[in-house]
Amino acid sequence: MELELQPLKLPGIEPKRPVVIAGPCSAETEEQVMETATQLAKKGIKIFRAGIWKPRTKPGGFEGVGTVGLPWLQRVQKELGMLTATEVATPRHVEAALDAGVDILWVGARTVANPFAMQELADSLRGADVPVLVKNPVNPDLELWIGGLERINGAGIKRLGVIHRGFSSYDKRLYRNLPMWHIPIELRRRIPALPIFGDPSHIGGKRELIAPLSQQAMDLGFDGLVIESHCRPDDAWSDSFQQITPDVLDFILDKLVVRNGVQSTESLEALRRQIDECDNSIIELLAKRMRVSREIGLYKREHDMTVVQTGRYTEILDKRGAQGVLCGMSGEFMKVIFEAIHEESVRQQIDIMNK
Ligand code: PEP
Ligand code: MN
Known about the structure:
There is one protein chain. It contains 13 helices and eight strands. An eight-stranded parallel beta barrel has the order 1-2-3-4-5-6-7-8, surrounded by five helices. The chain has two domains: about 20-255, Alpha-Beta Barrel (TIM Barrel); about 270-355, Chorismate Mutase Domain, subunit A (Up-down Bundle). It has about 350 residues and is α/β, with parallel strands linked by helices. Helix content is about 50%, strand content about 10%. Manganese (II) ion binds near residues 25 and 238.
């Protein structure tokens, strides 16, 4: 299904990269909302985010202040002239947020992963003229993400955008949610008119990653950024490790290098030719590696050995991982590459052994 889109057209906001949405993970108190928003407005931020209803992984966490927080967002609109944005997860949230005049709605990652919830949300949005930003689902499933967009769009919402907030994984050593940049890049290729916001706060999960992740989003040509900012981050009731003060946010935005990504210069063409050559060499080398693997498969068949020899596999992963890190690549990337290569080798050997 083709999406029927209109530009986001946010009143008073120039569609200049990056469009910044900032504010606390959660609205906690009227004082915290007003203090944070006032500081952000002083730094030129024009769109204020705050979660009113919070999806929490476990019961017992702070689940948001609920509808009592909506008048606080109205004060932000009236007294500071900012637009407001909040997360909706149920038709009841949609109704309350629309009644209160919230300017932008976003759908959270956990909700987007559930088609029933998305359809209910879409039905409750029918007839409303409000921009909706759809976060990626927690799992790395581009079709599910697009499906969510189709449901909302099918209900007549044409001012749509997406927020790339990374994908859940068991391994949270570096990122809270893995960026898997190829997924938003593929989404851009498939639906070029859809504005993409980066959410470095939820990808990184820590303050020091906000700047590099924001830069990366800009380098990939994303349209905007959603960044969690709190007047007293250490005291935040949710996501305290990843929130930054409006001062720090201003500093980070000031340092961002925003390049105009659409121009293709001659030197860029030359660099792309080099990339093509590298890719060709990689394919030739992989093919050679697979031929050797098949030879090994023959040997194993003749000597009645099993295909997978775990000791050898661990040695390859460890050694290549360390080598890759020395060459400036991430250990995680090396692991993914060599696991994939090993899987294909095993497939080739099983093929030979069964011949
Ligand atoms: C949020 O934006 O505070 C939030 C809960 O995000 P996500 O749905 O990406 O976890
Ligand atoms: Mn949050």
